[in-house]
Automatic annotation (TrEMBL):
UniProt xrefs under PANTHER family: AMINO ACID TRANSPORTER, SOBREMESA, ISOFORM B
Keywords, sorted A to Z: Membrane, Transmembrane, Transmembrane helix
Species of provenance: Companilactobacillus nodensis DSM 19682 = JCM 14932 = NBRC 107160
Protein name per UniProt: Amino acid permease family protein
Cellular component, GO annotation: membrane
Transmembrane regions: 14-36, 48-81, 93-118, 130-149, 161-177, 197-215, 236-255, 275-298, 333-354, 360-380, 392-414, 420-437
Bilayer topology annotation: Multi-pass membrane protein
InterPro entries (alphabetical): AA/rel_permease1, AminoAcid_Transporter
UniProt KW Membrane keyword: yes
UniProt GO molecular function: L-amino acid transmembrane transporter activity
Pfam families named among the record's database cross-references: AA_permease_2
Length: 447
């Protein structure tokens, strides 16, 4: 492991506040504005809605701390792909990369493109049948922009980072202090008219997790921090705590401003709440800020996704490796990998809704998350002498909490949304024959 670590070691120049801002920037995305509709639809009450946001934050903090130990012990380029490969071998790591390439990134692009189109239609009073053309146009446009190079995509990310914080701050700061005619009861915690409390909580928890998307990458900071043993846990706990506080606050404002029965299934809830708080003109300005935020979130998936299948191609680990490893001539960004990702995203725009797509990507990624939680125990047992700049405090409590939360999400999805769950599993496992066929052909050529 020493040689591998030296080869891929990163420059350690991140301090605590840089790490804190990176954690928050990685996680906060479009889900903060739009998951309230599916969360309330699943929970059936304001009390359970707020509770699942708090519970999701608690699980995410423990999950982040668990992954942080892996990141500090294995500070290599490749992040979670390398962790899975190191602990379990090449095949599970390939399946993770495959799932990211054909589910995670395309589903993220398509889901947020659908939301972007929905908001444009609402803002500009356009016909509803414009949703799919606008969503496709956005996906294709951002793919084209990213062909110009990482600098172009990075510029969009920088602008959108500021844009997404402005509407959040305005909605929370003003919305919390405005009067409301809605009667909100946060205790006792109930599922409203929904008969099954545990199923409602599971559905709500799954829905909230898309808003926390990005938490798996926070551990990657370990290799770039000056003092990971001291600052890593602090930045993750404080960063994810502040994010949870933001999510709980903005969800409370939405429930406070809109009658509860108007929120479930309403993808325009954020815009309608902004209009109630700031009036028509102010509400539209805030909605434009939300649109820019979603625009940036789509760009994030568009920019980072092709790098996964490109690496598979460059390492000759996938069929048509040379095809996926092709770069653009001048900007040197993955060309064919980006084309394939965009095509899959467009297909998903036609076939799925925002909630179906986001729930599927969350479900699939939590399967691999569970593997990493278990992996902490495996490494502790098999490699007790492995250098760990950061070790989980109160071990084994945080990984156990993360495993309980992840297990509940997976089991709840299997029982509550079996079609979604088995679709995600089937697409992931479809990568197995492709992997073994390619390995067989490689051996055949080498003979």
């Amino acid at each position: 492991m020493d040689k591998e670590t030296d080869k891929f070691s990163l420059k350690r120049d991140l301090g605590f506040f840089s790490a804190l801002s990176t954690v928050m920037g990685l996680v906060i995305g479009g889900g903060v504005f739009f998951k309230i509709s599916s969360v309330t639809a699943a929970t059936g009450s304001p009390s359970l809605t707020i509770f699942v946001w708090i519970l999701a934050g608690f699980i995410t903090i423990n999950a982040g701390l668990t992954i942080a130990e892996l990141a500090a012990a294995l500070p290599v380029a490749g992040g979670i792909y390398k962790y899975i490969e190191y602990i379990y071998g090449k095949v599970p790591a390939f399946l993770l990369a495959w799932a990211q390439s054909v589910i995670y990134y395309p589903a993220g692009i398509s889901a947020l493109s659908i939301i972007f189109a929905t908001q444009v239609i609402n803002l500009c009073n356009l016909p509803a049948d414009w949703q799919i053309p606008i969503a496709i146009a956005l996906a294709v446009f951002l793919f084209a922009v990213n062909l110009l190079g990482a600098k172009a995509g990075g510029t969009i990310q920088s602008v959108s980072l500021i844009a997404k914080l402005i509407p959040i701050i305005l909605i929370v700061a003003v919305g919390l202090f405005t009067k409301s005619s809605n009667n909100i009861s946060l205790f006792p915690i109930t599922s409203g008219t929904h008969p099954d409390f545990w199923s409602s909580m599971g559905g709500g928890l799954l829905a909230t997790m898309f808003a926390f998307d990005g938490w798996m990458n926070v551990g990657n900071l370990a290799g770039e921090m000056k003092k990971p043993e001291k600052d890593l846990s602090r930045s993750i706990i404080l960063g994810l705590f502040l994010i949870t506080l933001i999510y709980v606050s903005i969800s409370f404002v939405f429930i406070k401003e809109l009658p509860f029965h108007l929120i479930p299934g309403n993808q325009n809830a954020a815009s309608e709440a902004a209009i109630r708080i700031f009036g028509d003109i102010g509400g539209k300005i805030v909605t434009i800020g939300i649109l820019i935020s979603v625009f940036g979130a789509v760009n994030g998936y568009t920019m980072t996704g092709p790098r996964v299948s490109y690496v598979l191609g460059a390492d000759d680990d996938i069929v048509f490796s040379k095809f996926f490893a092709k770069l653009t001539k001048n900007s040197r960004v993955p060309l064919n990998a980006g084309i394939v990702q965009t095509i899959i995203a467009i297909i998903m725009i036609f076939m799925g809704s925002f909630d179906f797509l986001t729930d599927m990507l969350v479900f699939v990624m939590w399967i691999f998350s569970m593997m990493m939680f278990v992996g902490v125990f495996i490494l502790r047992h098999n490699e007790p002498e492995l250098d760990r700049p950061y070790k989980i405090n109160f071990y084994p409590i945080p990984p156990i909490i993360a495993m309980l939360g992840g297990g509940y999400i997976i089991i709840s999805t299997l029982t509550r949304q079996p079609t979604l769950a088995f679709t995600g599993i089937a697409i992931t496992l479809f990568g197995l024959p492709l992997y073994y066929i390619h390995q067989f052909n490689k051996k055949k050529k080498s003979l």
